[in-house]
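Need the bound structure for adenosine-5'-diphosphate, inputs here:
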Amino acid sequence: MTEPNSIDSLSATVSRDGVIVIAGDIDMAGGPILELAIAEREAQLAADGADHEPSPGDVVLDMAGVFFIDSSGLRSLLSATRRAGERGGKVVLRSVGPEVTRLLEITGTLDHFDIESQRG
Amino acid sequence: MTEPNSIDSLSATVSRDGVIVIAGDIDMAGGPILELAIAEREAQLAADGADHEPSPGDVVLDMAGVFFIDSSGLRSLLSATRRAGERGGKVVLRSVGPEVTRLLEITGTLDHFDIESQRG
Amino acid sequence: MAEAVDVATDEVQVRTVGPVRLELPPDPSLSRVARLAASGVASLTGFNVDEIDDIKVAVSEVMVALIEHGADCTIAVEFDVSGGSFTVRGTTVIDDFDVNHPDLVLCRTVLSAVCSDHGIDLNDGRAVIWASVEQSRG
Amino acid sequence: MAEAVDVATDEVQVRTVGPVRLELPPDPSLSRVARLAASGVASLTGFNVDEIDDIKVAVSEVMVALIEHGADCTIAVEFDVSGGSFTVRGTTVIDDFDVNHPDLVLCRTVLSAVCSDHGIDLNDGRAVIWASVEQSRG
Ligand SMILES: Nc1ncnc2c1ncn2[C@@H]1O[C@H](COP(=O)(O)OP(=O)(O)O)[C@@H](O)[C@H]1O
Ligand SMILES: Nc1ncnc2c1ncn2[C@@H]1O[C@H](COP(=O)(O)OP(=O)(O)O)[C@@H](O)[C@H]1O
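Answer from helper R.:
Posting the output first, comments after.
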């Protein structure tokens, strides 16, 4: 059986340096795909004993390819922040676009995240 | 009254050098807008006595901004070729994209037009 | 028939379009199709890029509420533009609908922020959720 | 309910989606909205760019036939993907429909070229026009 022809609305892959690179819409369809990638990264961190420099236990998301998020997608991110908090880590958002920032602002959840950079 | 807020699906403007610059979809909504611009150019040609160099009576369409055309849009172009033929001129298509070329091919109407260049 | 009509007002021409009605299975991936159709309607009626972003969020929240809290039946969403206002109105069959469910509270928080007005009505085993985004005059 | 289902075949996974139904006034500018919705359905079911171009043309031709030759009533178009085939099916009320009208002949010439199959049925004062585009396997 070859690769499925169907295109997911979102791709989320854990890169070699542990950063989760996301492209697509974080919505009802994309959220669960993102959650799988986050779980994969969390498993890596647990296996490493989370004792790596510079930020043990942080989940870093590269959001350069994200131009849409809704409340269902936000919930996927928030559940990662809860787990990160439990292990003393953070969810770091890199290259965040204005669409995502706006949703975090209006839901009062901006301070749940560590915003590393805005999309250029 | 200020400019209408509504955005047309197509813009077609006669530039200073007489070329009709088109951007948008040449469909049921765009076709009539294109026809207005062609009529404006035909009126200019008629007023000039159509004795200009290098190609008297030609209607030149810059298609660089056209990524969609259907049979209703094609009919707008074909009626221009009929009128051009009657006055001994041509309809010249500049920077034509593959979507337009394909529709001309499958309808057997490619030879009604003078294709000056393909979109780069 | 509700064909596109240009109505001249003192300030701007306001375009009336719709209703455009979409009926789809409660498939999460079709939320994107609803957003695309809504963007198309909004852009041809002259909403600007920021307003279209708000409309996409509003449509998506309506889809979230109906798909996640509905009874797994067909979703209907309708888009209407008139008087410079884009309204999305969605409906589906519900079993029991807890308006205070935290997920739905988050959904409504978002709708409150991106829409000028919104509402949820429950009757006869159906939920109707609507939201409006106003067009800037300028 | 027709939720998205992945069906494994010998060669590729074939995704089933739909039906997605669109009802709109016979406004020429809404042809673009129908194309956008169709592109969305086709892209999430894995059709490639060339196939999506064909689907957009097919949907547009169905809209041309129904809007230009219909009786100015609501247009319904339905998109269905199954077995690796995208089908658009449109219908509206007609007064009298001349299948040999030159504009409609041009329309059908285009449908013949971009679709693997298409058809027009007339009955009970309605026209039904359908067209299918096949997905490449590979
Ligand atoms: N409206 C809200 N404002 C702020 N945080 C919220 C809101 N709704 C949910 N959350 C947060 O989202 C996170 C994840 O919630 P939850 O869905 O319960 O996680 P999980 O599904 O992983 O158990 C929690 O930390 C919760 O505090
Ligand atoms: N199927 C077709 N193949 C080739 N040419 C066509 C076809 N259908 C229409 N035409 C051409 O389109 C042109 C415009 O047609 P028509 O709509 O009659 O023009 P007008 O509306 O300006 O009178 C004509 O030159 C006609 O030959």
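Comments: Residues 1-12 of chain C have pLDDT under 50 and may be disordered. Chain C has three helices and six strands.
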